[in-house]
Amino acid sequence: MTSTGARGDTATEMKNIRDITALGSSVNSIYKELIQQINAVTDVELYTANAVFVWPDLSVVPRFTLDLSSYYSAQANRIKFSAGGRPEKPINDDVAARTRNIITVLPRTSTVDNRTGLVLIDSLFFNGTWETPFEQIRTKSQDFHQLGGSVKQVEMMNDDRYVNIKRDDVNKVDVAELSFKGGRFSLYIALPHAVDGITDIEKLVVQPGKVQQLFTDLINVRVRLAIPKFKAESTLSPNTPLEDLGMTRAFSPSLANFGGIAAADLYISHVLHTAVLEVKESKTVAAAAADINIPIRTGFVMPPSESFVADHPFVYFLRDNQTGQILFQGKFSG
Asked: How many helices (H) and strands (E) does the chain have?
């Protein structure tokens, strides 16, 4: 959304780090189509909600707000400096409403002042029911081997089921796919062969094209499955990584060119990314959750032929299998 108002070398740098230069002027239309696809999903709860908050006296280029509304469905609001609880409160209230009150603080106190021209908000909500839920009665405390040799007790969800997996002896990692209702979205777990192999996996997934290889050539096998029940929360400031990738002008008060937003001398002061992901028996949520009672299955089934036990640090991906987009990505270290 921000790059829509960038001009000159600032726009070039922002396009280059996202590898979208070849898309030309069609990039906004592509994002619009992707957002529409996400918001149209019915088997899981998934939607994106964007907004822009503008300094009351800033004269914004009409085309900018029109493009944000048309391509990104972003609502335009004025920053309320007179708001009780400082101007951050109305912005955070908006974020909380869009993420079911899971993310309640995005702009922190004292980050919005009379020097702030705009605050752009991009939120994504996911709430998915497993294609095959885990039985709560089989969740139990088990050993989880952490880096450095220590062992921690974590709640592990257990089952015997058919799962798409692959054993990658070249990259020394096993991959399991846990599908959500409808099959379009899945949680992939990349489990290194070695207890201390997480660093090698992290280095692997940042190499061009390598992360997509994790999602190919999986085979449906009946396995003894055990994965942690966990909630991950992170708040990151990617200013420095973005600059390291080559996006430097946008952060410079003297070099930034956001003439497509306003005639004022605008630059990006900071970027803040907050994510919450919870994995549990009945659902995986990236914002909110609701438990359901799961009956115990009965009847004869074939015993598992293999095991996939995530009892040491691993990387996970919440992925849209139709578009190939990774919605959430992280690691669990116990």
From this structure: 7, 14
Identify the CA nearest to 257 among candidates 79, 7, 57, 5. Answer: 7
Distance CA 246, CA 237 (A): 16
d(CA 107, CA 113): 11
Question: What is the Cα–Cα distance from 143 to 154, expressed in whole angstroms?
Answer: 7
**What are the CA-CA distances from residue 52 to residues 88, 118, 124, 278 (Å)?**
13, 7, 15, 28
Give me 129's structure tokens.
Answer: 């029911």
pLDDT in tens, 66-105: 999 999 888 888 888 777 778 788 888 888 887 777 777 7
Q: What CA–CA distance (Å, rounded) separates 33 from 125?
A: 17
Residue 84's alpha-carbon distances to 51, 88, 91, 98, 99, in angstroms, are: 20, 9, 12, 21, 22
What 3-state DSSP class applies to 201?
A: helix
Which amino acid is present at 40?
A
User: From residue 126, how far is each of 101, 215, 318 by CA, in Å?
Assistant: 13, 20, 10
CA distance 290 to 293: 10
Q: Which amino acid is at 248?
A: T
**Could you tell me which residues are beta bridge partners of residue 329?**
317
Which pTM value belongs to this model? 0.84
Which one, of 209, 215, 173, lies nearest residue 191 by Cα? Answer: 173
Q: How do residues 137-183 score in pLDDT, each as one tens digit?
A: 999 999 999 988 899 999 999 999 999 999 999 999 999 999 999 99
Query: Which tokens sit at 247?
Result: 């996006």
Question: DSSP assignment of 135-181, as one string?
Answer: PGGG-EEEEEE-TTS-EEEEEEEEEEEEEEEEEETTTTEEEEEEEBT
